[in-house]
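In this supplementary section we document a worked example of the pipeline. Step one takes a protein sequence of length 1454 as its only input; no multiple sequence alignment statistics are reported here. Step two produces a three-dimensional model, which step three serialises into C-alpha cells for compact storage. The input and output of this example are shown verbatim.
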Amino acid sequence: MGCGSSVAPPEYVPQRAEEAEAPPAQVEEVTSGGFVTVEQHERKDDPVRPKPENFLPFVRRDVSKVPVEIFGGDHIYLTFTHSDMLLGMDGDRASATSKEYTPGHVFRIWRKDDTNKVIGDGDEIFLEHAESGKYLECKDDHSPMGFVDKDLSSKTQLFTWCKQGRPIRTKHGDTVYLETYLHHFMEYRYFEDDRIFAKRWERRKATTMTIQKKAVVESKSTELARKFQFQAFDLDGNGNITKAELDQVLFMVRGAEVPEDEINTMMNAADPSGSGQITFEKFAKWADEGGMSEEELQHVEVLGNIAQRCNDSIHDNGAFIEVMGTVAVQTAMDMQVDYAKKLKAGDMAEKIIEKAAKESDGWFFSGNWKNAMKALLEGEVHLWVRCLDDAMRGWGTDESSLTALICTMPERLRVDIFEEYFKKTGQHLLTAIRSDTSGIMGCAYSRVMVWQAMAPEDCRATILNNAMEGLGTDETQLINVLCQLNYQERDAVKEAYFRMYQRDLLEHIMDETNGYFEKDFKRALKVMLESQEAEYDLDADVEAMKAAMDGWGADEEALTKLVCSKTAKQMEDIRAKYYEKFGEELVDRVKSETGGMTAGACYFRDVMLGCIRHPMVQLAHSVRACMEGWGKNSNGLIGCLVHLPDFKKAALITTYAKEFKGRNLLEDIKSECGGDFERALLSLVTPAPEVWAHALRGAMKGLGTSDSILINFMVLAKDEMMEVRKAFCKENKAQLLEDWIDYECSGDYKDTLMMLAGRNSEDPIELLPLYWAQRCKDAISNIDTLMDVLVSMPSVAIKRHTQLYGEVYGSPLRENLEKRCKEQCSWFTWTDWFKKALTGLLDMPVERIVRVAYEAMKGWGTDEYTLTAVLCTMPENLYDDIHKLYREKYEKKLLDHVKSETSFNYKKLLEYQTMPKWVSRATALNRALTPGMFSSVAQDQLIRVVICSTMQERVNICKAYKEEFGKDLIIHIKHECPSESLKLVLMAVLNSVHPSAHQNYEADAQKLKSFLDGADGSVKGLIKMLAGKTPQQVEEVKTKYKAMFDDQDPVEVLEADGADWSNTVFKDSNFHCAVLGLLRDPITRHACAVRDCMVGWGTDDTGLITLLVHMTERQRRDLRSKYFDIINGGDLYDAIKADTSWIISGDYRTALLALVKPVPQVWAEALRSSMKGLGTSDNLLINWMIMAKDRMDEVREAFKELNDGQTLQEWLEYDISGQDYKNLMLKLASRRCPRFNGQEVGLSQEPPASKEDAILTFTKCFNKLCRQRKQSGKTVTPGEDDEQEMGCAFLYYGCKSSCAPNLDIPGLWDLTNACGFPPADGGPDLVATFHEWNYSGSGEITWNDFVREMFTRINDPNHFEADPLPETIDGLTNLTWAPCQPVQVYGNGNPDDSGDEDGGNGNVGGGSGGGGGGGRGADFGQAFTNGTWKDLLCNIPPEVDGDGVLTGPLPTGA
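The serialised model returned by step three reads:
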C-alpha cells in the first residue's frame, strides 16, 4: 500500500463524546470556595536551584503533614468533580447526596495484589465503604451501583483505577475515573437523580472524580490562611479587628459603601460576646464557619497586603513573572475570567500586551518576553494549537517540535484542539500534518503523526481499514490491533469504524478473510469481536481446553470459543488454573497444537496466543515481531505503539526486556529505524516530561537558541515542571535546566523562563484565581494601585508594611519608589509633583512634620504661614520624636532654626510653641523675673504662669527651671518679686504640690467672707486657706459660701466694678488678681487671663503667647467656648484679630489664631492659602494634604465651612494641572477616615472594645521593649508604632473615663491592675501613682503623660529585669488585683490649724492619720462606682515621712 492509503480522509475530525446536558432550571450553581510570611522549600530529589530568601513570601501551598500519595489501604473521599458531590451510601445503593465530609463518605481503597504500594494509573482495586464494611459493586450496565458483602473473587467488585495526567502514581487532589469490569466508567448524572451508574465507556464530565485522602484533609489546617487574612483586616496591627477596620476593608473589596446593617450583622457573628473587637481566634472561627466566602477572604488577603501590593506596583514586570510563573495553567485561565468579570478590568491578556507594547510606559522588554507572556496567558487549547501551527507554518516543518507535540497531546483536549485549529487556520489538522510530513522519505513518519493525532478508536479503525483496503489483507496488522484491545476498546473501534467508513467492522473482516485456509483464523476474529464478558466455570473451561487439545488433532472450533471469548482478567485465572492442574503453560500447549504450513494456520495460532498472553506480553511480542528478520514492519510497529497511556509505556519497556532476554526496546527502535521516524517512535514510548525535556535541550543546543520552541515547551511543561527538570537533568549529565536557561537567555525573558524552570509543580497552591487576578491588576494599574494603597491606608498601617517590605524584599520601600521615579522609563511621563506626593505618602506624621518645618525655613526667606501651621499643630506627645529626628536629619536643633528665621513677637510665639511645654513656662517665668534695663519684674506674667498651672504642672515647671537656668524658682521669686503679698501667694502655690488633707469648707467659707468684707487683713491667712486647695476643693468652698451668704458668688464680689479694696488684703492689685485666679475654675481662669492680656490699651503679647501655646485640642475648644461666657469676652478669634494688626504683625496674628483653632481648621486654612491667589504652591499643597491625611474628613468639613460651601475637591479640580497629580490629590481629598476618641492626639486606631484585646496588645509590646532594653543595655525609646500598640490600653480605659480620651483615677486603677503593675492599694498609693503619672499636671492622665510613663517604666530595672507581663488570656485571668479597701479620709471637722507662716502649705507638719476629729472611713471601690472619686481624692491625706514632711516630688525650695 502507498503512503496515501495510510491516512484518514482530509476532513477528519475526532468525535466529541455526547454529554447529556442538565436542564438549565435544575443546574445547581456551585461557588468555589510581627507579620506572617511563608518559606518555600525544595524537595530533596528535585534538581532545582536553591530559592533565595523570602522567595514567594506570601504564597501558601496546599501541603499537609502526611504523605499525599494514595497507598493501598488508605481512607479516601471521592468527589464528582463537576457537581462537588461526594460518593456515599444510601441503604445498599451508591449515591451522591452531600458535599460535606462525613464518616458515611469515607472509603478504603485496596489493591488487588493486597499490598500497600502507591495506587497507580491502570491498577486494579476494590473500594470498601469504611463505615459499613461493604464493597462497591457494579452488576451490569443498566442497574444502579450498590454495596454488597466482601467477595474478592467477584469481578463485579473489581475496578480499574484510571488517573488523568502524569505521573502514574495517584496523589491527593488528582482527577480519576473508575472503570468497571464491563469497561464502562462510574458516573453521577447530578441533574437526573442521586443514583450512580456505569453505562458508558467514554470519559466525560459525569464520570470525572477528584480523590481526596482523608488523612490529608484532616491534617491540613486553614490556620495559616486565616493568619494572612486576619493581618489584612487588622490595619493598625493591634491584634484585633474593629468595626471600622471591617468597614474599611469591605469597602476596598467591593468598591462601594457597605450597608451599616450588614457590617453589624458580620460583627455580631464574628464577635458574639459584643466586645466590639474580633480577635484572631474569633476571626478564624467565623471564617471557617463561612462568615465570608473563601474567595472574598482571599481578595481581602491580597488587598490588605500593602507591602506586596507596593512591590507589585513598583516592580510590575517582576509581578507578572512571579504570578504567571507560579500559578497552574487552569488557574491562569480562571484568573483571566475573574479579572474581566469580578474585577471588571477588561481582557487581562490584552492589557498586559498593550502595556508591554507602549515604549512610553517604559516596558522596553524583548519580543521574546512578550511572546512568553502571551503564551502564559493563552488557554491550554489555544496554546497547543499555536504550537502546532508554529511547527508547521512557513517554509519547512519543524519535525522535532511537531513530533513532541503530537506524541504528547492530551487526550482530554484532542477534540477542542482539532476544532480550534480549524477555526484559526481554516485547515483541518490532519490535512496540515499530512501535507507537511508526506515527503519521499517521510511516509512512515507521516503515518505516525497522523495516526497519533487521531482519537485512539479512530486511529485503530483507520489502521484496520488500511490493513484490509487495496490488494491483499495485512492479517498481522489485524492481529496486532485487535489482540491489544479489551472489550470496551473493541466496542469503541467498531463504533468508530462504522462512523468513518459506513461499514460494519466484523462484516468487513469476514469479507477479507474468506480464504479456505483462513477459516479458523476468521472464526477466531469473529469470536473476539462478537464476545461480551459473561460468567464462566473456571474448572470446567480449563478441562474443556485440555480436552480440545488432547488426542489426534486439536478441536480448533471448541478451543477458539473457549479462548477468544475471555477477558484478560479471566484468561489470567485460566492460565494459573491450567498450570496448577496440568503442570504446563497453556500458551506453550496451544502453540504446539496450532499453526501449520499455511499462512492461515499461522495467523490462527497468533490470534490464539494473543488472547492467552497477558496484554502487555502480547504487545511486547507484537512489537518484537515487527522488528525481527530482514526489514521491519513499519505499519505494524506504528500500530502497536500509538496511543499508549503512560503506565503501558513503562510496562511495555519492562516486559520487552523480560520477554527477550534483556533487550532494550528503545535501543532496538534506534537500530531498526532512523531520522524523524525513529524520533517519533521513541516519543511514542517515552513519558511526556522526557519528550519535552528533550525538546527543550534541542531548542538550546548548538549555535543560538530557538526562542519560540523554548517558550512553547517551557509553557507546555509548566504544570509538570519538576518531572521535566528531572528528565532534563538525567539526559544532560546532571546539568540543571535553569543553568542552561541562565546561559542562553537574558533580561526579563530569562527571569520569566527561570521562574518557570524552578516552578514547584507538585504542591498545589491554596490561593484562588481572584487573588492572582488582583495582583495582576495591581501590576497593570501600577500607578493607580500605589495611589489607592498609600491614600486609603492609615499611616500606622503603611508604617508596618514599610518595615515588612524591607524585611521581605531586601531594600526600603521608599528607596525603591524614589529610584523608580527617577528612572527614564515608565514613570518618566508622570509629573514631578505627582512623584513628590506619592513618595510623600510614605511619611509617618513625625517625618512629615519635620520635613514641612524644614522646607518652610530653608533657602531664601521663610514661609511663615507654613511654619506657623506646622508648629502650632504639633501633637504634644510627638515633641521629643520631632526634635530628635530634626536634629538627626538636618544636623541642627529645630528651636535654633526657628529662632534664626523669625523675629519679634512672632519669633517669641514660635519659640515658646517649639520648646517643650515646661521649658516654655520656665522660660516665660525667667524672663519675667529678669527684667531689662528699662523694665521691671513682670508680676502679671508670674501670676499667669503660676496660677494657671495645676499642682503637678508647677512641679514640672520648677524642675525645668532648675535644669534650664540653674536656679530654684521659688527662691528666685522670693528674691526678685517686689510685691510681698504676691510673693507669698506665689511661693505658697508653688509649694502646694499635694491637696490639703484638712478641710473644713464651712470655716473656710466664713474666713473668705471676712477677707472680702475687710474684717480680716491677714494676707498669710488667706494664702494658707487657698494655696493648698485643688480646683475641686475651691469649688466646695464657693458652694458653701453661696449657701451661707445669700447666694453670693465670691468671684463676682472680687470682680465687681468700683469696689474699694484699699483697706483690705486685696489692696495690692497683683495680689487681688492672683487670689481671683485661684478662686476661678481652671478654664474660666484661663479665659480671663487671656482676656486681660488684650483689654485696655495695648496687648500683653508675652502673656498672651504664654497662655496660648501648648494647648491640646480639647483645651482649645474649652477655651473658646468659655471665652463667650466671661465678662468682656465674646468670640476669641475676633478678639485676637481685633487686638493685633494684620499690617504690622500679620504672621503673629495668624500664629495666635493657629494656637486656638482646631487643628483641622488650621490645616484647612493652610490648604486654602496654598491654592488661593496667583498660582498654586504645589509643594505646600502636597505637604498639607499629606499632613491632613488621617483626619481628612474633618479637614474637608472645615474647608467647606471656611469657603462658603465650596468643597476641597472643587478647589483642587480647578487649581491643579497635570491629570496624574490632580487624580492623586482628589483621591486624598476624598479619603474615608474613621473617627474615634484619641484621634486628635495622634492615635490612629480605634479604642479596643474588650479588656483582653487591649491589655494583651499592650503587654506584648511592653514585654518586647523591655527585652530590647535588657538585651541592649541602652535606653530604649518606643517608636511611633510601639506607642500605637501600647496605646490600645490607654484608649480602652480612656474612652470609658469621665475625661475621655484621657484617663481618670478609676481608669488608672483598672489599667494598672489589668496590666500587672498595680498600686499597693486603692487608696494613698493609688493617689501617689496618679500624681506620678500625671506629668502634665492636668488632673487627668493625658496621652502624652501615658507615653512618658511607659518610657520611664520600660527603662526601669524594676520592669525590664522583672518577669514579663502576661501575654495570654489565662495569664491575665490569674493576675491578683490590689486591695481596694476603705481608707482614712477627712470630712468637715476642725483639723489642726498649724501651718507655715512663710507661705508654706497647710499640709506641712500634718500626720498621715490627720489631726482633726473629722476623720472617716470610705471605700474607694464604691467611689469608683458612684462617681464620687474626685471628691474622695481631694480628702485623702498625703503620705508623710517619719518627720512629718510630705513625700513626693517637691521643689527644692519648699
